[in-house]
Amino acid sequence: MPDKQKGLIEAFNEVLPSASRRFCLRHLHNNFTRAGFSGSLLKCALWAAASATTVKFFNARINDIVKLDAEVIVWLKEKEPIEWSKSHFSPNTKCDILLNNMCESFNSMILDARDKLIITLLEKLSYLLMARLQANMDKADR
């Protein structure tokens, strides 16, 4: 979910108050860089903290970030770990993906069919899904 869309978070909280929300880590990292925290070490440390699967491991990765740049923690405290780190995701949620690439990939796959009639769009989706399933079955056979 993008954090730059003004009013979107508030609207979700109003309409879907019990829905969890997460931020795409790639976009979070872009904001991180814009805030003045750059460098490959900080990037890797941020991704390690986001990928941590336990709170203990998450805290260890946060300590690594503090060692690199103590000011980062002030910026990170504005973001709840439940919105960007696997270690804090709800166990009720069935997906632990940190990026929204799937949405972007899906949109690029249907780009030529997006302005077509709904039946044409659905036929395109059907074809894409069948081709993907067949490709995966071929991989599995090998």
TrEMBL record:
Any one Gene Ontology molecular-function term assigned to this protein's record: transposase activity
Record carries keyword DNA-binding: yes
Keywords: DNA recombination, DNA-binding, Transposition
GO biological process: DNA transposition
InterPro entries in the record: Transposase_mutator (IPR001207)
Superkingdom, taxonomy of origin: Eukaryota
Stated name of the protein: Uncharacterized protein
Organism whose genome encodes this protein: Solanum commersonii
